[in-house]
Amino acid sequence: MKIVSACLMGCECRYDKSSNWIREIEQLVKEGKALPVCPEQLGGLPTPRNPAQIVGGDGFDVLDGKAKVIDDQGNDVTEQFLQGANQALRMALTIGAQEAILKERSPSCGSHVIYDGSFAGMKRPGLGVTAALLVRNGIRVASEESGVSE
């Protein structure tokens, strides 16, 4: 069993109320092999919402209190991202998930690359907040861009 970013199975839960639908991810959910989660919604953020980026590091730095998640209006949404990550982890542990397939570049779900916090479209290596928490708890994290495995 695995968890997947809900936007990847077609839920319109991205910040701009769109999805990143991938047929294979939706199929995993239909077959009961994956549970969709949206950490940002689980943390209490609305949809649609202002885009946010990690400023001052990556998801591990946010978990350690060394970086923040800020939206494009300057609002600190770190607490909501932390709450959402904790809820996603709870769901993953409850179903015994050993793997997560997450949306790359997301400040929550990025597993290899995130935006750099400048809101200028620049990217940097790093993990989002939820991805980092899952990794810290022994759950393998993959990107939708690295392919879907059964």
TrEMBL record:
Domain of life the protein comes from: Bacteria
InterPro entries in alphabetical order: 2-thiour_desulf
Pfam families: 2-thiour_desulf
Protein name: DUF523 domain-containing protein
Organism: Fodinisporobacter ferrooxydans
Top-level taxonomy: Bacteria, Bacillati, Bacillota, Bacilli, Bacillales
